[in-house]
Amino acid sequence: MVTNTDDWGWAEIAVKSLLQQRLRSAIARTGLPPIDDIPLNRSKNCQQAIYVSAIALKLAPVWQQPPQAIALQVVENLKAPCSKDFIIEILPPGILQFELADAALAIWLQRLAQNPLPVPESQIIPPALPADELFPIQYSHARCCSLLRMAHREKLISIAHPDVSATPAIWQLAAPNPIPWLNSSGRLRLLHPAERGLISQQLTVVDSLVPIFGEKNGEKSVNYFKLANSLSAAFQTFYSQCRIWGEVKTETPKLAVARLGLVLATQSLLRFMLVNLLDTVAFLEL
Q: For residue 259, what are the domain limits?
């Protein structure tokens, strides 16, 4: 991950794929035998952007070293490329833990909220689903669009092209740019469990979409309907628990705008999955 988001490709915005690439490079720099399959998974703690890897345990019988010693070598080679983006810890008995730092998470969210996903490299055969199962996802997408247009009318944000007859791939903001994800102390403003839950689901979606952009990496097949439905549910929880208008708008407007940033990112992901993966309509309004 880099501080200039213009340099990001979609393989890099997928945090899991990026970390796997960096782990491969770190292992190569040790001069010891490399490994193709890098075990890496999201932590079950959905309130934090944490990934864990048992790579040291996997390498122990190959390198004939204790996992803790291998973990120390890998971390030493990861410091330069990862120190600004991740908080790295070694947990017993040699598990590597990577927590996405707030500044890096803000860059990730900005990239996601203001850059549309590319067209898939291969044709996706959508599942056959009844309309009533797709409707909750379409409703969440339309609600995102409604919130963004309302925020534009009330001058919380300025959308570059607000008057459209069909849903855009992404609502480009004229202002603010960037979105105020961080407070004056450099910490993420979005602390509510529902906000964190939505961010967690956005990370999961992006990580899961990497194979359709040409980065196969031996990933398992993805249930795109389940993925879209989980994001829709996380958005509905966020929408019901995290206010944007009223006191939030008047007393903490930057928090309101940061929450709208989450709405922007959610709309983009939902539209992509509805149109490209589920072969249905992403309604502008319902």
A: 132-277
